[in-house]
Amino acid sequence: MLIYPAITALTAGAIIIIQMGLMFYAASGRIKFKKGLGDGGEPQMLKRIRMHGNLTENAPIILIVMALLEMGGFSQTILAVAGVVFVIVRILHPLGLLRSQGTSVFRFLGATTTMFLGFAGGVGLIIFALGQL
């Protein structure tokens, strides 16, 4: 029986809304700074590109891991908490970049929590999959 990954779907729904907002923000920067490709040496454009790009780089693998775990019957409570945390930190990360091009607490929390979720998810997948063999 196929299990629909509803928790992952809810998380993905929130993430895609954030992603489209960041995509619009990057695209509007292209108009504002007259940059069709790349950042053209404009620090504010680079910031917008990285806000969008960082989510684009991280979200797919986290969502795939969540879906695999959820479809395998992993704890829905743990997955729901992970999904909420992931959405929150993926909002915090670009907010940190808005405030500063350097280090910021929001950016640090976004990056480190995403790394933790990815690492924990990878370990969880391995352990969970080995138990299914």
CATH superfamily: Membrane associated eicosanoid/glutathione metabolism-like domain
The string of secondary-structure elements, in order, is HHHH
Number of helices: 4
How many discrete domains? 1
Main pleated sheet: none
Low-confidence parts lasting 5 or more residues at pLDDT below 50?
Answer: none
> At CATH's second level, what is the architecture?
Up-down Bundle
Descriptive report:
The protein is mainly alpha-helical and 133 residues long. The chain has a single domain, classed as Four Helix Bundle (Hemerythrin (Met), subunit A) (Up-down Bundle), CATH 1.20.120.550. The protein has four helices and no strands. Helix 2 (43-71) runs parallel beside helix 4 (105-132).
Which characteristics define this entry?
133 residues; mainly alpha; Four Helix Bundle (Hemerythrin (Met), subunit A); 4 helices; 0% strand
What's this, in brief?
The protein is an all-alpha fold and about 130 residues long. The protein is built from 4 helices and no strands.
Strand and helix layout:
Layout: H1 6-33, H2 43-71, H3 76-99, H4 105-132
Helix pairs in contact: 1-2, 1-3, 2-3, 2-4, 3-4
